[in-house]
Design a protein that fits this description.
mainly alpha; globular; about 325 residues; single chain; Growth Hormone, Chain: A
């Protein structure tokens, strides 16, 4: 996953990088919507065991994926498949139209391994830590909501079908939020877009515990999905843009690894909260707090970047 983002940021046009990364990762939300929809249909009719058989069906798509998924441009050039490399370049950026006489070269930057310490040099320390905190908090919210939203809603008195439809709305929001956020990030400041999304996540998740009409509840869940699942995708795009090419994969790998700890903590937190029988509203407030922390981390990220830019500016 980090390598896919690194390649996307290396070859995609700069004006489209966040959007393309968002579209690529929105497949996660599509899968979440399909699983919720299948669950709504199959659970009442065939029981929970049927879901394991349904989960195996996507494996049949692997041959199709292997056939249609393009190789990286660097790999094609190193293999001497220049025509395919030119065609892929043109697909990524129609303005780029390499001719047959143009020489394509792939520069291998592997060399020696890059230490994680490189992520803290050159004024990157504060921003690297901010990115790590945001990844951790965002994945905590994503997995806490994905794991426990149906159970929390069922315990609040909603039917199983309604609880699963909430999960459908959450993932639909995630896909919409990723694409909208990527579009906004390409046209405005991506970090500021993430701050706004995190604040919206904290507010919408907090309000889920309030007794609201069904249309309002679906809207809040949609916003929560857009600003948690969607923002997680934007974090990958932002991290790829933060680091130079020589340390990009290392930066993305470490950020993703730190975030996975949040993915572990999220479901555990939900289980612990359910175990102590807190009121519904307090459960959602606990899920919302990481959103406020992540917004603060991204604010520090912006301030650190501005301070670094001022320090690097020549004195007048």
């Amino acid at each position: 996953m980090p390598n896919a983002v690194a390649l996307m940021n290396e070859y995609a046009p700069k004006r489209l990088r966040s959007t393309l990364v968002a579209i690529m990762f929105s497949g996660y939300s599509v899968g979440g919507m399909l699983s919720a929809g299948i669950g709504i249909y199959m659970l009442p009719r065939f029981g929970w065991e049927s879901m394991f058989f349904a989960a195996a069906i996507p494996l049949l798509l692997l041959p199709v994926i292997l056939y249609y998924l393009p190789e990286s441009i660097g790999f094609l050039v190193r293999q001497g498949r220049f025509e395919q490399a030119r065609a892929l370049l043109k697909r990524l950026d129609p303005a780029c139209d390499p001719k047959a006489e143009d020489v394509l070269q792939a520069h291998d930057n592997k060399g020696k391994g890059v230490s994680v310490l490189e992520l803290f040099r050159g004024g990157l320390a504060v921003r690297t830590l901010s990115v790590w905190v945001a990844f951790f908090c965002c994945l905590l919210m994503v997995y806490a909501l994905s794991s426990w939203l149906p159970k929390l809603m069922a315990s609040a008195g909603y039917s199983l079908g309604s609880s699963l439809s909430f999960l459908l709305a959450l993932n639909f929001g995630g896909m919409a939020g990723a694409i909208l956020g990527g579009w906004l990030g390409d046209r405005y400041n991506l970090v500021k877009v993430k701050i706004a999304f995190f604040l919206a996540a904290a507010a919408s998740i907090s309000l889920l515990g309030v007794n609201s009409p069904m249309p309002v509840l679906y809207l809040l869940i949609f916003i929560a999905g857009a600003t948690t699942i969607g923002t997680q995708i934007l974090l990958y795009a932002g991290a790829a843009q933060l680091y130079g090419l020589s340390i990009r994969s290392t930066g993305l790998g470490w950020a993703s690894g730190i975030g996975r700890n949040g993915a572990i903590v999220g479901p555990l937190l939900g289980g612990a909260l359910m175990g102590i029988n807190l009121p519904l509203q307090l459960n959602f407030i606990a899920f919302a707090i990481p959103g406020a922390v992540a917004a603060l981390a991204m604010t520090i990220h912006v301030l650190s970047g501005k301070r670094q830019a001022l320090a690097a500016a020549p004195a007048v």
